[in-house]
Amino acid sequence: MTTFFIADIHLCAQEPAITAGFLRFLREDAPQAEALYILGDLFEAWIGDDDPQPLHAEIARALNTLHQQGIPCFFIHGNRDFLLGRRFARDSLMTLLPEKKVLELYGRRVLILHGDTLCTDDVGYQKFRKKVHNPLIQKLFLMLPLKWRLQIAAKMRAGSKASNSHKDLTIMDVNQHAVVQEMQRHGVEWMIHGHTHRPAIHNVELGEALGHRAVLGAWHEEGSVVKVSADGVELITFPF
Ligand code: LP5
Ligand code: MN
Q1: How many C-beta atoms lie closer than 10 Å to residue 202's C-beta?
Q2: What is the pLDDT of residue 180?
Q3: Where does Mn(2+) 1 bind (predicted)?
Q4: What are the pocket residues of ligand 1 if the criterion is a CB atom closer than 6 Å to any ligand atom?
Q5: Following DSSP, what letter does each residue of 156-177 receive, concatenated?
Q6: What is the pLDDT of residues 144-195, one digit of tens each?
Q7: CB within 10 Å: which end of the chain, N or C, has fewer?
């Protein structure tokens, strides 16, 4: 019995190799799991469930098929697809989770999250996040015509790329104090997240106890998955 975790697939119509790799993973690898958790940024940018891109329907169908094979899929929003909503969840049969969730897995308590909220040194991003997570702003955005939403998302992506190009790399990583605080608050020995695109398994000193933090890799050139079973926690990369 194994539970799979993935994040930062960043699916978009312009990257067909990533889509093909992800669909192959859902068909051939994911059926071996007991459950699949997607920890955010499944899509490169999500501007509303009413976006008629064929890619979205194709991914919903593939996740739906996995569910029908008896493998439930759970989703935590990322900073690119925080607007993914009930309609896509219904079509894909994915269960939407809150931004942090504690799982009891084979005798371990594991905190799962996207990872962006741990980057507390990135003050500019945290301010931006607060604005775009405001329910009223989201509601107004979703009322705009699709074409305007696409233009705003493109501006945000360009703004983000420009601002990231002169941000210090350490600012864009997790803050160690935030990691320890979250793990202690939730009483967990493991944390699994994505977002930073720095795949690794780190030890975390939690006072007297030793905890661990698994960071998922982004699906740029290859796939990345964390497999949790009674035997342990493994971080694996594989070709598309
Ligand atoms: O995403 P990535 O890897 O480039 O960088 C992230 C942080 N950036 C973001 C922004 C997203 O990329 C934008 C995604 C938009 C898709 C959905 C649109 C829905 C809109 C809904 C509105 C209600 O998350 C980046 C972090 C980095 O991770 C590492 O953690 O540093 O943070 C920033 O870049 C924030 C900047 O400091 C400020 C962002 C500039 C945005 C410019 C806004 C222009 C808007 C124009 C609107 C008319
Ligand atoms: Mn992210």
Answers
A1: 14
A2: 98
A3: 8, 10, 41, 197
A4: 45-47, 79-80, 83, 116, 119, 122, 124-125, 128, 132, 137-138, 141, 152-153, 155-157, 159-161, 163-164, 167, 172
A5: HHHHHHHHHHTS-TTTTSPPHH
A6: 999 999 999 999 999 999 999 988 888 999 999 999 999 999 999 999 999 9
A7: N
